[in-house]
Design goal:
The complex is a heterotrimer of chains A (665), B (248) and C (225).
Chain A (H helix, E strand, L loop, with lengths): L14 H8 L5 H4 L3 E5 L3 H13 L2 E5 L17 E2 L11 H11 L6 H21 L24 E2 L5 H18 L3 E4 L2 E9 L2 E9 L5 E5 L2 E4 L20 H8 L4 E2 L4 E7 L22 E5 L2 H8 L13 E2 L1 H5 L9 H16 L8 E4 L1 H15 L6 H27 L8 E10 L2 E2 L12 E3 L17 H21 L13 H19 L6 H15 L6 H21 L11 H25 L27 E6 L8 E6 L14
Parallel strand pairs in A: 1-2, 1-9, 2-5, 9-17
Antiparallel strand pairs in A: 3-4, 6-7, 7-8, 10-16, 10-18, 11-15, 12-13, 12-14, 14-15, 18-19
Helix pairs in contact in A: 3-6, 3-13, 4-5, 5-13, 11-12, 15-16, 15-17, 16-17
Chain B lengths: L2 E7 L8 E7 L8 H14 L21 E3 L2 E2 L21 E6 L7 E3 L2 E2 L2 H10 L20 H11 L6 H5 L6 H12 L2 H4 L2 H14 L10 H5 L7 H16 L1
Parallel strand pairs in B: 1-5
Antiparallel strand pairs in B: 1-2, 3-4, 3-5, 6-7
Helix pairs in contact in B: 2-7, 3-5, 5-7, 5-9, 7-9
Chain C lengths: L7 H31 L1 H13 L1 H31 L16 H4 L1 H29 L15 H8 L3 H28 L7 H29 L1
The chains are: A alpha+beta (665), B alpha+beta (248), C mainly alpha (225).
Amino acid sequence: MALDSKIPEGPLADKWTNHKNKINLVNPANKRNIDVIVVGTGLAGGSAAATLAELGYNVKAFCFQDSPRRAHSIAAQGGINAAKNYQGDGDSTYRLFYDTVKGGDYRSREANVYRLAEVSTNIIDQCVAQGVPFAREYGGLLDNRSFGGVLVSRTFYAAGQTGQQLLLGAYSAMNRQIGRGKIKMYNRHEMLDVVIVDGKARGIIARDLVSGKIERHSAHAVVLGTGGYGNVFYLSTNAMGSNVTAAWKAHKRGAFFANPCYTQIHPTCIPVSGDHQSKLTLMSESLRNDGRIWVPKNMEDAEAIRAGKLKPTKIAEEDRDYYLERRYPAFGNLVPRDVASRAAKERCDAGYGVNATGEAVYLDFADAFMRYGREQALVKGLDVNDDVLVKKLGQEVVRTKYGNLFQMYEKIVDENPYETPMMIYPAVHYTMGGVWVDYNLMTTIPGCYAIGEANFSDHGANRLGASALMQGLADGYFVLPYTIGDYLADDIRTGPIPTDTKEFDEAEKSVRDNIDHLINNKGKHPVDYFHKRLGKIMWNKCGMSRNAEDLKSAIDEIAELRAEFWKDVMIPGSADEYNEELAKAGRVADFLELGELFAKDALQREESAGGHFREEYQTPEGEAKRRKEFQYVSAWEYKGEPKDAVLHKEELVYENIEVKERSYK
Amino acid sequence: MNLTLKIWRQKNANDKGKMVDYKINDVSPDMSFLEMLDVLNSGLILKGEEPVAFDHDCREGICGSCSLYINGEAHGPDRGVTTCQLHMRKFKDGDTIYIEPFRATAFPVIKDLIVDRSAFDRIQNAGGFISVNTSGNTIDANAIPINKHDADDAFSAATCIGCGACVASCKNSSAMLFVGAKVSQYALLPQGRVEAVDRVKNMVAQMDLEGFGNCTNTGACEVECPKGISLENIARMNREYLFANIKD
Amino acid sequence: MSGFFKSSIGRKYAMALSALFLMVFLLQHFAINILSVFSPDAFNEASHFMGTFWAVQFVLQPILIFGVVFHFVMGFVLEIKNNKARQKSYVKNNGNANSSWMSRNMLLTGAVVLAFLVLHFIDFWIPELNVKYIQGDMSGLLTDGEGFRYYEELVHKFENPLRVGAYVLAFVLLSLHLLHGFSSAFQSVGANNIYKKSMKGLAQVYAIGLPVGFIFIALYHHFNH
């Protein structure tokens, strides 16, 4: 099967407009006869559900949380990009497009990224109209901050809670439609299969997590906004419930899975504290605007710090290695995430790590305190030479910018980051890979769409900061609602889809068999035992740097672990009640398949690009080395076991941007 | 450290439920409270017992899922944090810890420590929004300047995570801090003023219908709120409600 | 405004407005009583005016009685409703961690104040009605006709130490009631803003000062005669 990305003809800047002008529309009266299922209620799913309902479709929305407002988009901190150029610093749609493609290491689709940049400005207008309280300046206009990998300030934010505010905006739009009866909301429901009728996605099988009841839901189209699969690593910044199940079930029913190995390891997370750890906590990349990252220059100092004999504040300026500023003078501490993460790992692997386990570097605000403090002292007419006063004034400025992050750090680590530098270490954060979609965001299953982090389309091999929120909302508010009409225009005479058909019978039976197997297994180990082991394999062999040998052994180990899981997993309780272990088991079973495909994908990609770093392919200075022959999207077709998956390649063509060495020096 | 846990166990909504004692040893002070419960649960599963069910998801204090009443306080003894951010260093070796679900008639127990907070969703459905369609053609985001103090106050109100600690802490199980925060967020923004009258009336009517109690201004909600939502929001809602009724 | 007073917030307003009215009355009551310490004559004059002026007797007095009854009945109704909002209570609840004892026990302190009011009515108000409207003596004079009777009656009532004790206790509880009630009433009517701090100070002055003042009057007369 050849992949058709359906990119419209014409010049890049006109593609989206032309496409919108040409696609089929559904008239309002007919929309009332069409049902759409939206799975997931984060930024992408929530905004899509609300917009589709506004347009007149009957929407059924599903989330596994107890309310749509709790989807993990809520945890995004830093901000959302938009090419508004309010700061007059030279931003434009093209520049946002350029930065995103370059940041993604030339592994994303030009036309999709350009469209994303184009609609980015609408998102801000829409959100402000919805009452999203973005940060403002004293003049009453919107404020911006800058983020990694770019040279302009285009990031809109709401303190360190931008994701929360945007999600609550989408949730409020959903609320309006739920109140009108246009969205029927299914909380605490988990999708466990897609139902295909005559080759088209026509419904889902879902489990009510409270009663355990297996339900059939039909629709004319199914939209997956189910997020990423970072939890395949067990420890990640994802929520505990974040999972790949919906996307994976779609994959098993015919949706290709693209670039599974592209994973973003975020540089500024709170380091692991012990074996009991259940998840990792991110601290916004915006901290790198003002914090400077360093480790000791001398090995003796690093050893003394690890042993608890030396305090970081006692290390003299000349004995500190600000390694990002040293290696990348142009971008310094604001290099893209993949670069910053690898650089931290490089220093820690070399023995300069600064916590007990040697897996942490410092993020230091001492300079920022003084810089802001002097500015404040001048503004207020106070003594600029009084260091104590200046530091205090500066700390106040930092508190207003990042107060909640500093507080969060203190609660978790039990150290005051105003007095001693923070410790950070990279952690799995986002997955650029996902379900393959064409320009219309449709998967290889007709009528099944994937949006937001669940698809693969816009970030290539590495996502820039503040772009995930942009993509989720762009897909949900401004792209999918148009493109889905083109498909649904053929369904105006179809009428309601019945659920008493053999396709639904078959799908429900496979779901029930799976659950029965798990619950009756009565093995030796709880689900987490397997999940943790999977995570260790993934982190050690498919993490920040990868090589062929490790990847091959990872493939074997994961396959073995999967067999062991099905033999030995132990799940208490029954299937017809609230049973979190059972829900977890289903998710981990899918991670155990995805993990293997992940390693397989990483193995075939014999180059380094963005978040995918192959040790065999690096420049003499240790930078990622891309290879022209891998300028394609790897889309995998399911054929039974993950090892049998078949690779399809979508060649990436760059006509509007010159592919070159990605340099941040 | 070693602890005694007294945990509310309730099989399902119809079960009567009771407190059950558990001993747990070798708890690290660096663990979060929920990680401590994870350890308890994996032990229970290995013994063939049912694990304690509790709501949790993001484990970084923002999703609002976790909802435990610990030693007589919503989200436990620490201030400005959710249960998932509460760390065991706040307890001492040998402590006895009571763990109960958030209690309110409007929040029925689903299982063990999990309660049904869909009443909050229904209040939001009644008016927690600005009626604007997604068109891409709304006015430019900077067309209406908003006073920074108002914008900041609206933001502070909007940081509510909908966890229900306010209801759980209130001796009357009142939801006024939650509703007041949402009403305030929109009342402070010019975009929200347009529908202010209907919004406050509809949301308050739904709140009353859900069976939450009356506010008697004890201030417990403000103290226990993990996001520090201020009582001022309730006062603002009261004013909004009065004026909305006068205008009609 | 239809349905306003049936809503939770409407009832808060009703509760707060009746409270504010009662607090104004209390201040007025105190202003007259304190005269008894400085000038029995002035006290007699004021009492006679209040006791015989038609607008006070037939307009303000019924409103006051209605206010008291309303405040109590409404408080009780709300308490029942609030208890219904949590049918299953906590095994362990640490109310002191987040709220004051006064704020959580308004019904208790209010009930004690009410019990005192009953005593107060029996002591002063019923005899007063008896003299004025049943016996028809509107003169306000002592039976021997030598001057007004009000001051003498007051002094007489405070002779009994048991009554003084009850009086002191009731005012301590009133103080506790007001310590929460004063600022609570303002919060309920939506007045919680930049004057929050000064409001808090005023609340304390009123809630402690006024009951202490009443207690002082009682003790003054008890020990000085």
